[in-house]
Amino acid sequence: MIDLVVASSNPxxxxxxxxxxxxxxxxxxxxxxxxxxxxxxxxxxxxxxxAGKKAKIIHNHLKLSVLADDSxxxxxxxxxxxxxxxxxxxxxxxxxxxxxxxxxxxMKYLTGEQRKARFxxxxxxxxxxxxxxxxGYSEGLILEEFRGDNGFGYDPLFYVPSLDRTYAExxxxxxxxxxxxxxxxTEFKNYLVxxx
Length: 196
Prior knowledge:
Largest sheet: 8 strands, mixed
Number of strands: 8
Strand content: 25-35%
Helix content: 25-40%
CATH topology: Maf protein
CATH class: Alpha Beta
Order of helices and strands: EHEHEEHEEEEHH
Number of domains: 1
Distance between the termini: 8 Å
Shape: globular
């Protein structure tokens, strides 16, 4: 059994990651289980920088295997905004609703192909002296209105044309099968299987 600290306190991410790893001999631990952790300021210019920084800080502090995730939404017509600022697009303590509303406002006059977007997930795994990155991408479009009640973040706006549904209209299993995080986790799972 591998004990793995997930460098996140986000319950949605923890649930999604635990679902994806449920059949492996891995015991996940959330940051909420530990006290006196150093503050992590996500000030990187890329998802890889932020994921790497989180993983290193937690690994150096706890001396345990760590998996850090940084992910977000990129809209090419907005110069890949919100990007690394996805969780705080509308401000430091902004809600999902506020972030979504700002995105809709900025995309108000965009149509068709201009509404293309992609979710990006970068995972950084550190165990002993090994540091490795895994990436996943999911392509879609940003709708003009919210659809669906599942998920979190930009899920109610992120439309997958091949399924004719948003991420928020998918079950957890359906989303995991096609999501950016699911794709990155599949790469990570394949790597873990070789370690076990």
